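Quick review question:
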């Protein structure tokens, strides 16, 4: 059983297609309360007794905290030793889930190249694994052209796309979203069919109108311009010091 897509899910689907090339239908967009809530939801779709998680090292501490709290084993996947080391570690440990920040790795800022993305997706297909793509900071790019999302390259339905609005609007607005591949969507609705809405309907309606009427993209452009100026001033001060 699936619920009727809300206006916010439809608007997010349209935005993600246009801005990040994400291949999805509104039914695949699942709203969540923050990144930690979204991660907890994803992990409930897997078996903690048999499925290990490949964790970027160094990486996002919230992932480690949520996975540990839910009883999942973690295996380290190095992100500061080159892309071959990253992919070789995945092949060595073969986790069921790999958490990645391919378009802006946290905290190194590294970008996963196109060849490495192709190899990563092929690994997931061959090992029956899934990739969590956290694309949270994609709106803020300086000195680089737009980078396609990993999900947009995925021909195997192996990528779980994760994003949020707090980096753009406000950390106090606890709204994140998942784009689940079809293979996991049925499992999600089986587990959460009778769950209450993750976020308030009022917040949904306001954010949906904010996106639909064009204010979201205007806000992103304004924020990116202001942050770019701060970014350049900081680099200039560091170089002179």
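Suggested answer, residue by residue:
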């Amino acid at each position: 059983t699936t619920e009727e897509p809300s206006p916010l899910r439809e608007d997010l689907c349209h935005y993600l297609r246009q801005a990040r090339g994400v291949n999805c239908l509104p039914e695949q967009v699942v709203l969540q309360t923050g990144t930690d809530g979204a991660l907890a939801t994803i992990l409930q779709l897997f078996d903690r007794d048999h499925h290990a998680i490949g964790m970027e090292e160094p990486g996002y501490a919230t992932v480690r905290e949520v996975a540990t709290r839910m009883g999942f084993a973690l295996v380290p996947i190095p992100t500061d030793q080159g892309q071959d080391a990253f992919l070789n570690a995945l092949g060595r440990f073969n986790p069921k889930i790999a958490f990645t920040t391919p378009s802006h790795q946290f905290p190194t800022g590294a970008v996963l190249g196109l060849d490495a993305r192709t190899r990563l997706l092929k690994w997931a297909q061959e090992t029956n694994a899934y990739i969590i793509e956290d694309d949270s900071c994609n709106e803020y790019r300086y000195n680089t052209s737009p980078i396609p999302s990993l999900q947009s390259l995925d021909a195997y339905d192996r990528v779980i796309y994760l994003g949020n609005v707090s980096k753009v609007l406000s950390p106090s607005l606890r709204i994140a979203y998942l784009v689940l591949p079809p293979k996991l969507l049925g499992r999600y609705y089986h587990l959460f069919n009778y769950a209450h809405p993750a976020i308030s309907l009022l917040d949904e309606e306001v954010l949906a109108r904010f996106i639909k009427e064009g204010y979201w993209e205007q806000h992103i452009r304004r924020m990116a311009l202001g942050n770019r100026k701060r970014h350049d001033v900081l680099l200039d001060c560091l170089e002179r010091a």
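Why it works: The chain has a mean pLDDT of 91. The helical segments are 7-20, 34-43, 61-69, 83-93, 114-127, 182-192, 201-212, 215-240.
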